[in-house]
């Protein structure tokens, strides 16, 4: 089972200003359309950027629909021992549907 966070749960935690790291694994072209902030590390560049991902802070992995971020999560857990990761269920698309109807979609 992949540890997940729903868009509403993420919004609540962001509103409480919890210490979260947001890592978006989409491509720069997608990030330019819309993003939730945090840091862009495209999935293909993840292995080169392992040292930029905190192991001691809750970290939410984000993509368009939640599939690439789930892949990133499994890779980081299985190959690098991360235990602090959450996948944004449904990605930025779900964020637009469930949290912010003004959020750009593509």
From TrEMBL:
Magnesium keyword on record: no
Organism whose genome encodes this protein: Rufibacter quisquiliarum
Domain of life of the source: Bacteria
Domain Rhodanese residues, every copy: 16-104
Keyword line: Transferase
Keyword Transferase attached: yes
One Pfam family, short name: Rhodanese
Protein name: Rhodanese-related sulfurtransferase
């Amino acid at each position: 089972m992949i540890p997940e966070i729903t868009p509403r749960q993420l919004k609540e935690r962001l509103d409480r200003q919890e210490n979260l790291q947001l890592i978006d694994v989409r491509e720069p072209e997608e990030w330019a359309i819309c993003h939730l902030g945090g840091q862009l590390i495209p999935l293909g560049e993840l292995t080169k950027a392992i040292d930029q991902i905190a192991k001691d802070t809750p970290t939410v992995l984000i993509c368009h629909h939640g599939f690439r971020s789930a892949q990133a999560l499994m890779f980081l857990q299985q190959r690098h021992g991360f235990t602090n990761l959450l996948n944004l269920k449904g990605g930025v698309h779900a964020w637009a549907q469930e949290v912010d109807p003004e959020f750009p979609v593509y």
